Amino acid sequence: MFDKYDTMGAYHWRECDRNSKEYNPPLAARYEIVLKYAPNGKVLDVGAGDGYLAGRLAGQCSEVIGLEYEPTGVKIAQNMLVSHANVIIKQGDAYQIPFEDSSFQGVVMADVIEHLDHPEKAVAEMARVTAENGVALVTTPHWRFDRVWDHRHVKEYTADELLDLMLIGFQDVKLVFCWPRFWSDIYRTRIGWRVLRLLGRVGFNPFQNQSDSADGYCQILAICRHPRRTVQ
């Protein structure tokens, strides 16, 4: 069971706030990169959690629907986004997205795919609701041989594994990599996380650095276009 929202509340909002004592530069970088590639039209956030990303998307998208399975997450997101007129938070399942085919110009799934027992079903549903000229954006931690990112993860993906998974639903998949491992390892040290938090607060966040190469990077973004209407 995913219990983070019961135990931690609206933690994405706190950890992405530069003024918060819990500020988390890697987490903030993940969302900034998703926002960079997100379209301006109607967007679906699958696994919206406490609603932080949906709230950020609302600033550049005409309409945002946040879909979250966990009841506590839904309640928190609804409370946090009550003043956002163009955001709706609904409880729902990534395996049965409750919208018609081709409903969205953009579909995002930020660090959710690694929690799913049946990710291929979620990919098929994302492809179904993505418009022909739309884009789906999926982030996930890059598998490392020397550590597990989170014990709650069902599977952590190599670049090739994520590519193969997303090609189930989309004809065109490009992978972009961020979170340089050099900075990620520094962030895990007692002094490093303090220094990087301070730098992030003044506008320098090295976790936003991107590459087309998987080598030396800890986060993957899949940019998926041309959804398959008959999923493989």
**Domains counted in the coordinates: how many?**
1
At the first level of CATH, the class is Alpha Beta
Total E-strand runs: 7
Please state the CA-atom Rg, rounded to the nearest Å. 17 Å
The CATH H-level superfamily is Vaccinia Virus protein VP39
Low-confidence stretches: none
Largest sheet: 7 strands, mixed
Strand and helix order: HHHEHEHEEHEHEHHE
- Mean pLDDT across the residues is 95
Physical arrangement of strands within the biggest beta sheet:
3-2-1-4-5-7-6
Name a few traits of the molecule.
232 residues, 7-stranded mixed beta sheet, Rossmann fold, alpha/beta
Outline of the structure:
By secondary structure, the protein is an alpha/beta fold. It starts with a helix and ends in a 5-residue tail after the last strand.
Q: If you had to describe this structure to a student in words, what would you say it looks like?
A:
There is one protein chain. The protein has 232 residues and is of the alpha/beta class. It has one domain: Rossmann fold (3-Layer(aba) Sandwich). It is built from nine helices and seven strands. The chain has a seven-stranded mixed sheet with strand order 3-2-1-4-5-7-6. Helix 4 links the parallel strand 1 and strand 2. The radius of gyration is 17 Å and the shape is globular. The mean pLDDT is 95.
